[in-house]
């Protein structure tokens, strides 16, 4: 029985969540301690209670922190509408007298929790430093770690603090945000914390940089014909490595280790590209050996991840009882328009919090239907369609007519489901043309997957056309209208991405109607889109001519970048659909040439991260920060320091000509983590590879999946429950679930090197439906 079939059988066709194995498969185990120091109350400082609930001090130096799961008023200082807040914070604080903790690299503590009716009991550990580098940082991202507790169990927790600034520690805290209870039954937090200890361990996990601790390789495997690279630490004294059959243990390949040096560092590279036969293998290098991985087709490698990611998506369902997590939820999150009121629940919760985004649910729905077309397992395909229908239900439900949709709601709590009480939330409603174009393209695409009955296909086709028409009419009156609030997750949309979206929507509407009007719109906006593309070429310092990349608009002043939300693949989808349709040979040839230019640009970015498969984020002009309107749309929740930090971040990249840089990681500030960026670019490479029949692009797409599943400097899989060495992620509302993916690996400060601390605050380690959606989309394109 295949792995997919086993998971389907064990979970009643994924109507129950996949069981998490005992213990988290992490490198952060109990290790030898060479130095330690007990942290606790003293004559000068004691544990103090802050906020709601209560604190009781224990004779052993520990304390018990308690609070109910909800309160009948908002906490002082919280917004009166309850936007993006829980019911109040309960905190225990210990002031520290400016101590230097640099001689320690780990902190441990014992937590005993006896919580009742709490959905995912958790505690936030908080640390403050006022030395050379302050934490929490200006964006409140550094210095926080959320621990999902093992309820009714006393347990010792270890936190790696090796990369945290700790030269002048002034405070530590333990706290939580009360955010409701299971089925709104009266609940209570009761958490005892004691035995807090600083420790020095000699063998700790690297959290920053390009140099791996052990062997960096793809935990799930490599495609038969692609370049197969693993990386080891340059301090390793081995000169040779072997590939062995994981089953027979026979040695099937010996290779020389090649040392390389570039501006990222010195690496020892294990190249076993000559091994092309399908099978299960291990890498052996001196005393190091990997676990088993597969060499095979894209399907052999990645299809097993599909039910796991589907498991996470199912676990994020809103408005539907999920066994082991929550009951029916958020019936009192309401949207109103023209005397009509709906409960804005359904689809899937957006992230580690409980917010909801119509567009994210719609994009997830599209990915599910696409994947259903590309998996061979009939049971899994039907289950994907079933989950996709849950998304369609939400899209239909939130439609107020005449282009108006309930679009988003900021929710961080479990509500009581009773409309009219204090914890109700209000969803945003508007008729922005961009969202209508995007919804039109998604619904028309789903219609063509042929997974639905005729009546539903007809209904969705009619909606797709109506959304397009209402969007086009409003667009003519108000071109490129911006989103009304920054919390809409399409807020950063550029004119070039807008054009690409219209092209895709028009192309799909033409395909389902055969109406030539849509073909005319497609041609107009396809030409607008390629006017935003670099076609003449920029001469680089090494005399290379670089072209193919897109700008945000036809002025060619600011390149198109993504740093959190990422819809890079829309450019390529526009190319793909346009090249299928009946246009003149002249236009077809021009568009095909531009598509090749774009594919070449993606391959150009590949070399800046070798020997890792991660694609660099793109090219940047040093003057882009001067366009404040564009800059402020791309980067949310920033202050004036961001404009100077932009220059500092570019200096950490690679200068390729005067005033032009390549950044391996995006320029970013408050919102960090690049999984969505990588997977959107990977999706682009997969589609381009298929359209242009270019295996290098297909393998570039595959490389982004490999990076996420272990082929990174930390030898960690970022997908919980897949591969190994995965860590607890920021899943504060619903607990960890097999198949969840975080926002992604970040950078520290203005550096351009990977940073993956054990601390798991938002956004970098926050689980996100967008990452799951883009994983399915990229795998789906490769399975084609």
Automatic annotation (TrEMBL):
GO biological process entries: polysaccharide catabolic process
Protein family per UniProt: Belongs to the glycosyl hydrolase 9 (cellulase E) family.
CDD domains, per database record: E_set_Cellulase_N
Upper classification of the organism: Bacteria, Bacillati, Bacillota, Bacilli, Lactobacillales
Gene Ontology molecular function: cellulase activity
Transmembrane segments: none
Residues annotated as domain Cellulase Ig-like: 221-287
Superkingdom of source: Bacteria
KW Transcription (keyword) present: no
Keywords from the named record: Carbohydrate metabolism, Polysaccharide degradation
Pfam families tied to this protein: CelD_N, Glyco_hydro_9
Domain Glycoside hydrolase family: 305-729
Protein name as catalogued: Cellulase Ig-like domain-containing protein
InterPro entries referenced in this protein's UniProt entry, alphabetically: 6-hairpin_glycosidase_sf, 6hp_glycosidase-like_sf, Cellulase_Ig-like, Glyco_hydro_9, Ig-like_fold, Ig_E-set
């Amino acid at each position: 029985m295949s792995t997919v079939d086993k998971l389907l059988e064990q979970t009643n066709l994924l109507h129950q969540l996949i069981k998490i194995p005992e213990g988290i498969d992490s490198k952060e185990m109990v290790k030898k301690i060479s130095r330690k120091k007990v942290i606790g109350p003293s004559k000068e400082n004691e544990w103090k209670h802050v906020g709601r609930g209560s604190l009781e001090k224990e004779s052993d130096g520990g304390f018990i922190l308690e609070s109910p799961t909800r309160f009948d008023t908002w906490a002082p200082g919280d917004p009166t509408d309850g936007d993006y807040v829980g019911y109040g914070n309960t905190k225990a604080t210990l002031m520290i007298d400016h101590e230097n903790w640099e001689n320690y690299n780990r902190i441990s503590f014992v937590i005993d929790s006896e919580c009742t009716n709490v959905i995912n009991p958790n505690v936030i550990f908080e640390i403050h430093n006022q030395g050379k580098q302050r934490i929490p940082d200006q964006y409140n991202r550094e210095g926080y770690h959320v621990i999902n507790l093992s309820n009714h169990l006393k347990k010792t927790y270890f936190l790696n603090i090796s990369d945290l600034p700790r030269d002048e520690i002034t405070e530590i805290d333990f706290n939580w945000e009360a955010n409701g209870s299971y089925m709104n039954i009266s609940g209570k937090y009761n958490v005892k914390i004691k035995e807090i200890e600083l420790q020095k361990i000699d063998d700790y996990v690297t959290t920053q940089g390009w140099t791996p601790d052990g062997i960096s390789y793809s935990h799930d495997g490599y495609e038969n014909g692609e370049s197969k690279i693993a990386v080891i630490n340059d301090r390793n004294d081995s000169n040779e490595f072997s590939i062995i059959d994981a089953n027979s243990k026979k040695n099937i390949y010996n290779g020389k280790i090649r040392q390389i040096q570039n501006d990222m560092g010195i690496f020892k590279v294990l190249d076993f590209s000559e091994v092309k036969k399908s099978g299960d293998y291990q890498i052996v290098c001196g005393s190091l050996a990997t676990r088993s991985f597969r060499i095979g087709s894209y399907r052999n490698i990645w299809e097993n991840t599909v039910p796991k990611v589907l498991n996470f998506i199912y676990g994020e369902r809103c408005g539907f009882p999920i066994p082991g997590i929550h009951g029916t939820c958020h019936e009192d999150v309401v949207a109103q328009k023209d005397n009509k009121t709906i409960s804005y629940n359904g689809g899937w919760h957006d992230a580690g919090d409980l917010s909801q985004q119509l567009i994210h649910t719609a994009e997830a729905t599209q990915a599910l239907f696409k994947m259903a077309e590309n998996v061979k397992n009939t049971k899994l395909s039907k289950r994907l369609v079933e989950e996709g229908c849950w998304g369609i239900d939400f899209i239909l439900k939130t439609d107020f007519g005449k282009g108006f949709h309930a679009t988003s709601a900021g929710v961080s709590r479990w509500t009581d489901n009773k409309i009219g009480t204090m914890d109700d939330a209000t969803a945003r409603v508007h008729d922005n043309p961009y969202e209508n174009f995007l919804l039109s393209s998604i619904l028309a695409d789903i219609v063509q997957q042929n997974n639905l009955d005729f009546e539903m296909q007809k209904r969705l086709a009619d909606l797709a056309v109506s959304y397009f028409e209402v969007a086009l009419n409003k667009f003519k009156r108000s071109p490129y209208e911006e989103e009304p609030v920054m919390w809409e997750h399409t807020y950063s949309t550029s004119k070039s991405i807008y054009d690409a979206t219209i092209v895709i929507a028009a192309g799909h509407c033409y395909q389902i109607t055969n109406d030539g009007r849509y073909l005319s719109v497609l041609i107009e906006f396809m030409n607008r889109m390629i006017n935003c593309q670099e076609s003449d070429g920029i001469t680089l310092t090494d005399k290379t001519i670089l072209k193919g990349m897109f700008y945000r608009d036809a002025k060619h002043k600011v390149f198109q970048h993504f740093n959190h939300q990422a819809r890079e693949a829309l450019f390529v989808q526009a190319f793909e659909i346009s090249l299928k349709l009946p246009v003149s040979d002249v236009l077809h040839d021009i568009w095909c040439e531009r598509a090749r230019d774009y594919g070449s640009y993606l391959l150009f970015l590949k070399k800046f991260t070798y020997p890792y498969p991660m694609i660099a984020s793109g090219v940047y002009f040093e003057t882009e920060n001067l366009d404040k309107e564009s800059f402020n749309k791309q980067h949310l929740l920033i202050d004036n320091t961001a404009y100077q930090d932009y220059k500092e971040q570019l200096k950490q990249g690679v200068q390729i000509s005067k005033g032009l840089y390549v950044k391996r990681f995006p320029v970013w500030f408050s919102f960090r983590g690049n999984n969505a960026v990588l997977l959107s670019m990977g999706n682009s490479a997969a589609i381009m590879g298929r359209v242009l029949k270019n295996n290098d692009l297909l393998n570039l797409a595959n490389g982004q999946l490999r990076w996420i599943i272990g082929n990174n400097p930390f030898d960690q899989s970022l997908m919980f429950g897949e591969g190994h060495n995965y860590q607890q992620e920021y899943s504060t509302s619903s607990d960890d679930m097999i198949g969840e993916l975080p926002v992604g690996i970040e950078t520290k400060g203005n550096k351009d090197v990977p940073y993956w601390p054990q601390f798991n605050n938002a956004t970098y380690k926050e689980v996100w439906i967008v990452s799951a959606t883009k994983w399915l989309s990229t795998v789906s394109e490769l399975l084609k």
